[in-house]
C-alpha cells in the first residue's frame, strides 16, 4: 500500500539530523486535506501529526475536534515535508524539498473525494498557489480555486500576525469553519 511505501521512505536519510520518520495521514475517502509545513521535534518523537500547540491552534481555527481531525477517513494530513527537518538559526529548517514532488501527486491521486485543501503556511502556498506573500494570499482567500484555502502557519508567531491582521479573525475564520463543515458534510464546496 502507498502509506507503507511512504513510511518506508529514506530518500533524505543523509540530510535529516534525526533520521527519516514520515508523519502523514490519509485514506481514499479523505475529504479535507491539510497541507502544513513539516513535523517539529515533538511530533517527530510522538509520530502523531499536529499533536502540539500549533495543532491545538489549527483545530481551534477550523472548529475540528480531535476525533474528526485524526480520522483519515475524513481528514488527510500531508505536510510539505513528511519528516522533521532539524533546527536552523531561527526555528525549524524548511521542509525537505524532495518530499512534496515525490509524494503529493501520488497521494492526491488516491483521494478521489477531496473537497477542500487547506494550505497552511508559506511553503504550501508557494508550491500550490505560486505566491510568495502569505498575508496577501490569506486576505484573498475567496479567490483561490479550486478548493484551496490558504492560512498562516498556526505557530506561536501567528498571534503577532493576527494582531496585525484583525480581519483574519473576523472574516477568514468564520468562512474557514463554514468551508470545513461543508467539505466534511454532504455538499461540495
Ligand atoms: S522528508 Fe519525505 S522524501 Fe524525505 S525521507 Fe521523509 S518522507 Fe522521504
How would you characterize the overall build of this protein?
The strands form two sheets. The chain has a four-stranded parallel beta sheet with strand order 2-1-5-6. By secondary structure, the protein is α/β, with parallel strands linked by helices. It is globular and about 45 Å long. The longest helix is centred in the C-terminal third of the chain and has 18 residues, at 167-184. The chain has helices at residues 2-7, 41-46, 53-62, 66-69, 99-110, 122-129, 134-139, 158-164, 167-184, and strands at residues 32-35, 75-77, 87-88, 91-92, 116-120, 148-151. The chain has one domain (24-184): 3-Layer(aba) Sandwich (Uracil-DNA Glycosylase, subunit E). It binds iron/sulfur cluster. Residues 9-12, 20, 22, 81-83, 96, 98-99, 102 line the site of iron/sulfur cluster (SF4).
Give the low-pLDDT segments. Answer: none
What fold name goes in the CATH topology slot?
Uracil-DNA Glycosylase, subunit E
So, CATH architecture?
A: 3-Layer(aba) Sandwich
Question: Level of helix content?
Answer: 40-55%
Question: Which structural class do the helices and strands define?
Answer: alpha/beta
Shape: globular
Which SSEs are present, and which pair or pack?
Blueprint: H1 2-7, E1 32-35, H2 41-46, H3 53-62, H4 66-69, E2 75-77, E3 87-88, E4 91-92, H5 99-110, E5 116-120, H6 122-129, H7 134-139, E6 148-151, H8 158-164, H9 167-184
Iron/sulfur cluster (SF4) binds at residues 9-12, 20, 22, 81-83, 96, 98-99, 102.
